[in-house]
Amino acid sequence: MTIKEIVSFEELYNRDLTNAVKKNVQKYTDKQGNPQEFSLEYLSWSYGWREMKRIDPEASEKVHEFPMFDNQFRMIEGVTVPYLKTPQGFFVRNTVTFQGKAETEWLPIVEKAKYPVSNPNSFQINTSNKRCFVKALAKHGLGLYLYAGEDMPEDISKPELISEEQVGYLDEILKVVAQATDTDFEILVANIRENTKIQTPFDQLNKNEYGTILNYANRMKLKAEKVQKAKPPEQGAPKKIETKSFTWGELSDE
Known about the structure:
Elements lengths: L8 H5 L7 E9 L5 E9 L1 H11 L4 E4 L2 E4 L5 E7 L2 E3 L2 E10 L2 E8 L1 E2 L3 E2 L5 H17 L25 H17 L4 H12 L10 H24 L10 E2 L4 E2 L6
Antiparallel strand pairs: 1-2, 3-7, 4-5, 6-7, 7-8, 9-10, 11-12
Helix pairs in contact: 2-3, 4-6
Organism: Enterococcus casseliflavus (Enterococcus flavescens)
InterPro entries: DSRM_SSAP
Protein name: DUF1071 domain-containing protein
């Protein structure tokens, strides 16, 4: 295995994906007959593949194949297909081997983000496999934060908002980042809002927005620590910063 340098899960998680994230806006009608819409963010599979190969040229993806069945669920001898057909629907399965570790993920073939496809075409199968690759890659850390708000209720009338506890946790984290970067708290918040394009009040954030802001704050903290490490010893060694609910020290590659 030829890898320039092992990249830790934490570093992969904190990669800036701003220019590689795509937004899929879905429209639907709720149970009361009212038109609604919601958006999902996902990582471009081509960007994921590029970053994976840059770090580990020998990294690979396996698209699992399964026996093919006819409409009466009778197996066709000697034929395999890149999806699993079941009475409940169609699924794809992908394994990503990266930096010597394999992660596997399943994904149902759906439309409009949640409705099973009864007879998927080749485009839907291929698209699902690409998304399954991205999801398996996320288990290694790259783009994982995008799945923070993935689970959706049966009837989506509005995005699920974060809890009061999460609002307090975010406020506490941002205060730590402000201290680490020697930045006024209000200026820090304005900077984050400008760069993430999220203007929602913190007590009204949905889970996707919450994950995006946490990821951005984490990257700011990591950058501040690297700058601190680069200073000569006489200017002071990196300090561990603690709060009552979490501890952030030097990030390790182990």
